[in-house]
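Me: Here is a favour to ask of a fellow structure person. Could you put it straight underneath, so I can go through it closely?

Assistant:
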Amino acid sequence: MEGCIQSIDRTGVDFVAFEDPKLVLPQSTQWHVFASFGTLKGGRADWLVEKFTELGANSVTPLLTERSPSISENCVDRLQRVILAAAKQCCPVKAIFCGFSRSYSCY
């Protein structure tokens, strides 16, 4: 951009542009990622939810099936804390939904 400097002092610079500034939008694609997984034993669910969050998932949903172990309220709270901690470390502030879905498979 071409222009002329009007004045310079301790508070800043006064600059007059010769032409109107143009806004250049980023060329990146905005993705909406929705992740779901079967319930896991041990700390593997925590690790998986953390990685989903770090990769930018907008929604994380454990799938409850006929053969899956039940999920307690403590587990839901823990997964939400894992999501919050992972989002604070790597992601810009955004809302990540942690919901539950009931799905039945045919065996």
In short: Residues 30-102 form a domain with the Alpha/beta knot fold (CATH 3.40.1280.10). Strands lie at 3-9, 12-17, 33-38, 57-64, 97-98, 101-102. The helical segments are 44-54, 73-90. The CA atoms of residues 23 and 64 lie 47 Å apart.
